[in-house]
Design goal:
single chain; mainly alpha; 16 helices; about 0% strand; globular; disordered C terminus
Length: about 350
C-alpha cells in the first residue's frame, strides 16, 4: 500500500467516503467540510495559545493566521490535509503551554495526555511534524529544575509518544519497500533541489547530480536542526530577532525552533515544492508575534508561494522555451520564491515604538 499519509488521515478520508455513500462529489464536499472545521479549530487554538503567553497580541496573531491568503486558499478552498495536521499540532502546542503553567498533578497528567495524543495524531496525518517533536520534548524537560526530573520527562514523553506511534501505525504498516514517504525524494521539481540537479546534470550526469545535491541540502538541514536544538537548550533567540522577540522561555524557543525547521524544510529541503507546505509553519509564526523577523518572513513566503503557482502551472506551460528547457524554467521560477524570502530575512528591522510594544 503506497500511501504518503498516516493512518489517521486514511481513517478520516475513508470515514468521509462511507458517510457520504461513496459518491465522488459528496466525498469531495465532505473533505472540504472537514478541512474547514480544522481551519476553524486551528484559528481558535492560535487565539487560545497566544492568550496564554502574550494576551495583548492574541487578536493580532490570530488575524495574521486566519486571514492569511495562503491559509484560506490552500487550507480551506483547496482543502489540503495539511490543515488537519496543523490542527492537531496546535492542539499539542496548546497542551504544551498548559503543562508549563499547570499547578497540580492531576492537571499536568490531563494536559500531558492531550499533548501526547495530539502530537501522535498530527504525525499520523502527515509525518512531517515528527521533525519538530524533539524541540517540544526538550522544552518540557527544561521546565524541570533537577537533572533527574529532566531525564525522566524526556524518557516518559518520548517513550509514550513512540509507543503510541507504533501502536497506531502497526496495523497499517506497508513495510519500508512500499512506504511512499521514502519515495518522495526520488524525483524533484519546482524547488531549489531541482534547480541544483538541473544545473549539475550536464557536468556530472543525472544520478551523480542527485547524490551531490541531496548531500548538500541534507547536510545544511542537519546543521540547521542542530542549531535549533541548541537554541532550545540555551533558551535563546538569534540576534536578528532584536527587541521585538518575545521573552526567552522554553515555550517560545520551542515554537521558534519548530517554525525554523518546518520553514527551512519547506523552502530548501523539499524535493518538490508545493505552496501548501507553508501551512506547516504559518501558525507557529503567528504564535511568535510580535517577533518582526519571523512575521515578515512568513508573510512574504506566503505571497511568494502564491505567485509561483501561476508561473509553474500556467505561464511556464504557455511558453514552449520554458516548458522544454527545464533548467531555464526553474532558473526563473525558483528565484521567484527564494529571492523575496531572502530579502525579507536580511532586510534591516525597525524597532517597534514603545507604545506599541506595551
Amino acid at each position: 500500500k503506497r500511501q504518503p499519509y498516516g493512518p489517521v488521515w486514511e481513517l478520516f478520508s475513508l470515514g468521509a467516503y462511507y458517510l457520504t455513500g461513496g459518491g465522488f462529489l459528496n466525498h469531495l464536499f465532505a473533505i472540504k467540510v472537514l478541512c474547514l472545521l480544522a481551519y476553524i479549530g486551528s484559528v481558535w487554538l492560535v487565539y487560545q495559545i497566544i492568550l496564554q503567553i502574550r494576551p495583548e497580541w492574541a487578536v493580532v496573531g490570530t488575524a495574521f493566521f486566519a486571514w492569511n491568503p495562503l491559509v484560506l486558499f490552500e487550507g480551506v478552498q483547496n482543502a489540503h490535509n495539511d490543515i488537519v495536521m496543523v490542527f492537531f499540532l496546535l492542539a499539542a502546542i496548546w497542551a504544551f503551554v498548559r503543562i508549563t503553567q499547570a499547578i497540580g498533578r492531576k492537571r499536568i497528567i490531563w494536559y500531558s495526555g492531550i499533548f501526547s495524543l495530539a502530537f501522535v495524531a498530527s504525525i499520523l496525518v502527515k509525518f512531517v511534524t515528527v521533525m519538530v517533536l524533539p524541540f517540544f520534548l526538550l522544552g518540557l524537560a527544561l521546565c524541570k529544575k533537577k537533572w533527574s526530573q529532566r531525564i525522566f520527562s524526556l524518557a516518559a514523553y518520548g517513550l509514550s509518544i513512540a509507543g503510541l506511534l507504533v501502536l497506531f501505525m502497526w496495523p497499517y504498516w506497508p513495510g519500508f519497500d512500499n512506504w511512499a514517504v521514502l519515495e518522495v525524494g526520488e524525483g524533484a521539481g519546482r524547488s531549489l533541489m531541482a534547480l541544483l540537479i538541473l544545473a549539475l546534470r550536464p557536468i556530472t550526469g543525472t544520478n551523480r547530480a542527485f547524490d551531490i545535491t541531496r548531500s548538500i541540502i541534507y547536510v545544511g538541514l542537519g546543521l540547521l536542526y542542530l542549531w535549533c536544538l541548541w537554541l532550545v537548550w540555551k533558551q535563546r533567540y538569534p540576534r536578528f530577532q532584536r527587541k521585538e522577540t518575545p521573552q526567552n522561555t522554553p515555550i517560545d524557543t520551542s515554537i521558534f525552533a519548530g517554525f525554523v525547521m518546518l520553514f527551512g524544510y519547506a523552502l530548501f529541503g523539499a524535493s518538490t515544492f508545493h505552496a501548501w507546505y507553508f501551512l506547516w509553519c504559518l501558525p507557529l509564526a503567528a504564535l511568535l508575534i510580535p517577533a518582526i523577523r519571523t512575521t515578515s518572513v512568513a508573510w512574504t513566503s506566503s505571497l511568494a508561494a502564491l505567485l509561483i503557482i501561476p508561473y509553474f502551472e500556467t505561464i511556464r506551460v504557455w511558453i514552449p522555451s520554458l516548458n522544454q528547457n527545464h533548467l531555464l524554467g526553474h532558473a526563473i521560477g525558483v528565484p521567484l520564491l527564494l529571492i523575496p524570502v531572502l530579502l525579507a530575512l536580511w532586510k534591516p528591522l525597525r524597532v517597534l515604538p514603545e507604545e506599541i510594544q506595551s
